[in-house]
Amino acid sequence: MDPTWEQAWHAALYGPEGFYRRPEGPAGHFATSAQGAAAELFAGALLELARREGLTTVVDVACGRGELLSALAAQADPSIRLVGVDVVPRPDDLPARVEWVVSPGGADLPDLGSPTAALILAHEWLDVVPCPIAEVDDEGVLRVVHVAPDGSESLGDPLTGPNRDWCDRWWPGPGSPGDRVEVGRARDVAFEDLVRRTGSGLVVAVDYGHVLGDRPPAGSLVGFVDGSVCTPVPDGGCDLTAHVAMDSLRPDRLLTQREALRELGVDGARPPLDLARSDPAGYLAALSRASQAAALTSGGPGGFLWALRRVG
Ligand SMILES: C[S@@+](CC[C@H](N)C(=O)[O-])C[C@H]1O[C@@H](n2cnc3c(N)ncnc32)[C@H](O)[C@@H]1O
Predict the structure, then answer these.
(1) Which ligand 1 atom lies nearest to the CA of residue 129?
(2) Which of 191, 224, 271, 312 could form an SS bridge with 200, CB 3.0 to 4.6 Å?
(3) Structurally, how many domains does the chain consist of?
């Protein structure tokens, strides 16, 4: 029988020829808040969060090629330690102060040295942590979905055990034939593992997500390549991503990115026109900040969910 989606997904992204081992990295295929045009403002907001919480190390888990860390290095006081974690060796062009740890990938994490007073960010990590996919068959039984290298699917055994328990608790009632569940237990376990590897501080997972009562009945698994959504095919030729059940991570706080950034002082208000006359350069800088803020707090990115867990 073909592998389960969880197995095929892992091999496609993190196997020897996996999508995320390609030299261009994620930024070669899509922009995110952490490496797009607004990364500078995003980095500033994270440093403000670290300052308010008294945190002196920032670890960016699943950091791509370290784009956000470069933005952090440009703004952070030299006393702030910066660490990147991803599946490839340290990129050559990172600022010298940025440390780097190579990770196995997916749900597996490396030894992070149990950092203390640390802000641990996982931005768009959990959506690429492979999870089982289950589908309701014609008799109403929830079965594990298997997938061939060309993307064609078949239904296997009924979903049982802790993954079934997870569905009963966190994704109840997929009832009609064809309804699907992306079983988030794998993400919960990965998040707990990250928390366990943190000596003290704040762990923040930021992702596309949903909460109980708002799960997508048909699931959300898609492929992504060269800036476009594509059919999810586990052949290493595209990203494979599914939204995250953020409430089952059991965060201390769960808020939208819009709310989180507003709390941190990110404001998309345009500067007063008077400033254009009195201080043209200042006006242009403020305008650029306002447009970065709008990019982070409106539309899709504004609706991203931040799951915060305090450690120690
Ligand atoms: C969607 S990209 C996000 C990159 C970056 N955080 C951003 O928002 O632009 C997902 C990244 O997660 C990385 N990744 C997946 N599993 C990982 C793991 N266990 N440890 C470290 N990085 C991981 C991938 O290699 C990839 O670079």
Answers:
(1) 16
(2) 312
(3) 1
Q: For strands 118-123 and 57-61, give the pairing.
A: parallel
Q: How far is the centre of ligand 1, averaged over its atoms, from the C-alpha of 177 (Å)?
A: 33
Encode pLDDT of 13-63 as tens digits.
Answer: 999 999 999 999 999 998 899 998 899 999 999 999 999 999 999 999 999
What tokens does 201 get? Answer: 């501080």
* Domain annotation covers residue 237: yes
**What is the span of the domain harbouring residue 87?**
5-131+179-264+296-311
For the domain that residue 186 is a member of, what is the CATH number?
3.40.50.12710
Whether 103 is in the pocket of ligand 1, judged by its Cβ within 6 Å, is yes
Domain membership of residue 161 (yes or no) is no
Using a 6 Å cutoff on CB, does residue 70 contact ligand 1?
A: no
The CA 68 to ligand 1 mean position distance, Å, reads: 12
Q: What is the pLDDT of residues 262-303, one digit of tens each?
A: 999 998 888 999 999 999 999 999 999 999 999 999 999 999
Q: Is residue 142 part of a domain?
A: no
| Cα dist from 121 to 209, 238, 244, 309, whole Å | 16, 24, 16, 11
CA dihedral 41, 43, 46, 47 (to 10 degrees): -100
| pLDDT tens, residue by residue, 109-129 | 999 999 999 999 999 999 999
CA 57 – ligand 1 centroid, Å: 19
- Ligand 1 mean position to 127 CA, how many Å? 9
